[in-house]
């Protein structure tokens, strides 16, 4: 009876995707429920931290970019090897450390360490989206992914609204907004503790099932039966299915060289597709520019309308921009367009919109134009990144999509690091915030020009293919009477 009860409990646990999904959504919600986020710059340059705008712009914020880049690759590899949960726990601890330092630490050096911990938390985000695929069956992937992504957008929107209400209605100091954020990220950390530990991962720990009888009976355990000596086995996805007791094969499966060989093989195969290659280029270039704008937009708002002299509506603007972005992302599912033909032209057009919004923000002295331009910029980017994600993922397995996501993000951060060091960092040009946004607007204009050219080339290619397809049809139609005449004479 005990055995039967244990078996039924295990079956129920393996089939129940709701438990880990609820915990993961709870982590996503509370980790993003940060009412202080839209008011970071006013808090840092205010009397509590008493930093200068130049210190925040040129010395503090660049550290986030550098640490994010430095941590991304090791975290990406270690995340899969450790099976996700430890990295999610690390992310929760990094958030707590960040907000404790934001509340109680003083000085520019402390703020730079704060940015390092926040960069670590940002890099660890890959575990949040990868974890669920290792604990639920593939039939629930779409549903669970939508839950996890939606809950973070909802949390950020609610946090922004809450922060705006507390500041505008009750004049709550920014310090207490950070206290609320600390409580929220602490709850997020607590929600990671009961998360079940996955038994498999995408690369290092693949799913195991019982031995195949033919392998068990016909093939003895020997060096000759290992994948390394079998020319038919070329990557990890082709490794023999093994039991928990097959220690030799498990060592081969966990072998980092084998895993890296598969990653390299997948990398070459994925990027050999021109369609995926060009969408990935846009992804990396646009994400680089988007991250720069998001990081420094509050400093530009504070320059146009100093937070110490007027009411700040940063929270309301972030809430509206997130809500509109969610709407544009949702609308992608209802756009009926042949993206293989018109996709690159669309990237060029909407990148022009992004560029125009940034120029409007940069050249205007009206804070409401700056707010409006930011909403347009963010919503347009979210529209395009949703399309790019769909176009890249539509023909890829989960493993290959995760690989491309990691590579594209890494390239984006590498470009962002170069841009930050040259434009923002005090060791580089150390430009003022107005000049920075002039460069960001020009950057998106260059992206627009690149994809307009590529889009026109694609349209010309498509037109030539259509002509080649139509020509034989026309020729065949004109030849029909002669064919029929020949058949009649032969008859």
Structure characterization notes:
With 491 residues, this protein is mostly helical. Helix content is 75%, strand content 0%. The protein has 18 helices and no strands. The longest helix is centred in the last third of the chain and has 58 residues, at 433-490.
The main β sheet shows up as:
none
Estimate percent helicity: over 70%
Q: Give the averaged pLDDT, no decimals.
A: 82
Structural class: mainly alpha
End-to-end C-alpha gap? 84 Å
Rg from alpha-carbon coordinates: 27 Å
Instruction: Report the total helices.
Output: 18
Which term fits the overall shape? globular
Number of strands: 0
Q: What order do the helices and strands follow?
A: HHHHHHHHHHHHHHHHHH
Q: Tell me the strand percentage band.
A: under 5%
Low-confidence stretches: 1-14, 208-246, 484-491
